[in-house]
Amino acid sequence: MAFDAPRIELYLMDCLEGMAALDEGSVTVVVTSPPYNIGVNYRTYEDSKSQDEYLKWIRNLGSAIYRVLEPEGSFFLNVGSRPTDPWLAWDVASQLRGTFVLQNAIQWVKSIAIGEESAGHYKPITSPRFLHDCHEYIFHFTKTGVVPLDRLAIGVPYQDKSNIGRWRIAQRDLRCRGNTWFIPYRTIRDRNSQRPHPSTFPVALPEMCIRLHGISRVRRVLDPFVGLGSTAVAARRLGVACVGFDIDRYYLDVARNQLTSCADEDGTAGQALGLG
């Protein structure tokens, strides 16, 4: 049986330039994580703008995304901060307040401890002033604030099974996951070869965002900072089209290899990739 693979397009160019070439309202879901302006050592991009310059850039980014997003689309923005500036994520989100409606604020939990049990990943912080930084935000923006979601597409089973049928909305063993998502990184042994981008997110993160919006309504996914291709791989696995931009050729080469591996797995190698 022939498999109609989704079109994946990755381009080596600045995202503002790239989005200007997209048709208005041509994207259903945006999942991305821009540079945080905290001095991260990217290969090409200089992550150290002045605060005013950076926030203006975020506003311009938001305007560009607004133009290409469908009226009922979803924009998922992953932003972190640093211990010395915990306001950073909310400063970024506030720049989009005049453009989008913040429909949901999600916490991406990377590491969690319950009692003496712990799971997940964290970067140790040696300063005696701060706790380990174990989460980042995923801000869910929409144009209206009333975009319906497929909440049970990423639902979780009830711990207390007596809740099934007790509530009007509980007709099966699945409930809304809520706004705290535990998504740990896969364990790696060599960062340079297995995760060469300094701040990529796991494929599970964009996959959950796309599922939450509702796969049946997704025409195309966009990641303006595609990096190693996590969003593109998630879209590929879910069978939806995707377009992404990055200014670093090496990162795009890694993304290309990941997508080729996905294509090899289902026998559609080379069929779905449009790389500019």
Keywords summarizing the entry:
alpha/beta; single chain; 11 strands; globular; Rossmann fold
Order of helices and strands: EHEHEHEEEEEHHEHEHE
Under CATH at level 1, the class stands as: Alpha Beta
Rg is: 19 Å
| Number of helical segments with 4 or more residues | 7
Structural class, judged by helices and strands?
Answer: alpha/beta
CATH superfamily: Vaccinia Virus protein VP39
Q: Residue ranges: pLDDT <50 for 5 or more in a row? A: none
Major sheet characteristics: 9 strands, mixed
Which CATH-level-2 architecture? 3-Layer(aba) Sandwich
The portion of residues assigned to helices is 25-40%
Distance between the termini: 30 Å
Provide the domain count.
1
CATH topology: Rossmann fold
Query: What is the arithmetic mean of pLDDT?
Result: 87
Annotation, overall tally of beta strands = 11
Spatial arrangement of strands, main beta sheet: 8-4-7-3-2-9-10-1-11
Molecular structure report:
With 276 residues, this protein is α/β, with parallel strands linked by helices. 26% of the residues lie in helices and 23% in strands. The protein is built from seven helices and eleven strands. Helix 5 crosses helix 6. The longest helix has 18 residues, at 51-68. It is globular. It starts with 7 loop residues before the first strand and ends with a strand.
Short description:
The protein is an alpha/beta fold and about 280 residues long. It contains 7 helices and 11 strands. The protein is about 25% helix and about 25% strand.
